[in-house]
């Protein structure tokens, strides 16, 4: 098997799904001739034509609204938003229409759209290019939220997202686009949504993370007996895998680069307090970004949770 980076993996997933299912269409700004801002869709216009790789006007609300309508008429649109902070203009279409149409129609219709966007800090972008606000979408009933951490799971998760009957927000860690490579099978495979992966087994601490922070968490485990879980799907998350791990270790650290207040880590903390209280040997610790907007590039490295902060959290739960 040849190795590939995250960009290659997502490109292959899109191409394979477009080849497999003629209903799959792509929409986004500059995704055709230019291949997208990160060149994720490079070559797909030439392969599938302008009717299936659609360069849209500069309107996130418009492109997602169009995708909802296309989905209701039987297509499988995949929308690319250039950066996560640009998705806010489209929230009305995602929350008020895509997420509700199944309930509104009493199950007669669904909106199987995928909204892809790079997210997170680490590429030293200008303001509004590094947000990590996944919790907003996790709070929307009817929407699934997925974050890959490697090229392998990016391909498998994206293929599952495209085939899913519900709207999926697919968040791609921009810092990882070209910094890591994994082996990528040529044959078709999927990774089920709602399934977490235990990437490292351990017996004393359960560390839960996703995206870029998964790799920092793995780096921080040296010298600690840590079981590391890649959440993969933030909503719905894999309750069984998480509970089984915490019941074994009794200690939990959640690491994410979004701010802590009302973040996904807060939901996981409440989940463990409600369902695993008697198994906990220490409070659930969260390692997150500070409660502030993403700073300019020169301060990004101080904003992102560091390996040292994660290690201090491990020490704190072990010494509690």
What structural keywords apply?
320 residues, alpha/beta, Rossmann fold, 2 domains, 7-stranded mixed sheet, 12 helices, 14 strands, globular
Explain this structure to me?
The protein is built from 12 helices and 14 strands. It has a 7-stranded mixed β-sheet, with helices on both faces. A 5-stranded mixed β-sheet has the order 9-11-10-13-14, sandwiched between helices. The protein is globular and about 60 Å long. Helix 10 (264-275) links the parallel strand 13 and strand 14. It folds into 2 domains: 3-183, Thiamin diphosphate (ThDP)-binding fold, Pyr/PP domains (Rossmann fold, 3-Layer(aba) Sandwich), CATH 3.40.50.970; 197-318, 3-Layer(aba) Sandwich (Rossmann fold), CATH 3.40.50.920. The chain is an alpha/beta fold and 320 residues long. Helix 1 (6-20) runs parallel beside helix 7, helix 3 packs parallel to helix 4 and helix 8 packs across helix 12 (307-318).
What's a concise summary of this model?
The chain has 320 residues and is α/β, with parallel strands linked by helices. The protein folds into 2 domains: 3-183, Rossmann fold (3-Layer(aba) Sandwich), CATH 3.40.50; 197-318, Rossmann fold (3-Layer(aba) Sandwich). Helices cover 35% and strands 19% of the residues.
